[in-house]
Amino acid sequence: MEIIISSNSGKPIYEQITSQIKAMIMSGELKTGDAIPSMRALAKAIHVSVITVQKAYEDLQRDGFIETTVGRGSFVSARNKDFYQEEQQRQAEAHLQAAAEIARAAGIPLAALVDVLTLFYEEE
């Protein structure tokens, strides 16, 4: 498992770890039941504090992406895809609500907004 930390990123290190592990799970690189490195092993591999990795793992566990068992370690959870899709949909809805408010205030017709969204969605 390769995690790349960027010191130039505006995101905290634990968020970089969290988002990269979520992406690996969603892409299928990490599958349900796969073990993920121990907090100490990952901290050593990417040269960060164990506390930083612990925060990332706590977030992943809270969001349903991993399950941690004392003495056994952390594993990819079976429930992760649904949680991730719900989270992504909430974020998309928030952005769409903001776009709708801006368009309404500027007098941009709904049809124009739908056309732009369709264009963005279908881009490759």
From TrEMBL:
Keywords noted in UniProt: DNA-binding, Transcription, Transcription regulation
Gene Ontology MF annotations: DNA binding; DNA-binding transcription factor activity
SUPFAM superfamilies per record: Winged helix' DNA-binding domain (SSF46785)
Domain HTH gntR-type residues, every copy: 11-79
DNA-binding listed as a keyword: yes
Coiled-coil annotated residue ranges, if any: none
Domain of life, per lineage: Bacteria
Protein name: GntR family transcriptional regulator
Organism this protein belongs to: Candidatus Faecalibacterium intestinigallinarum
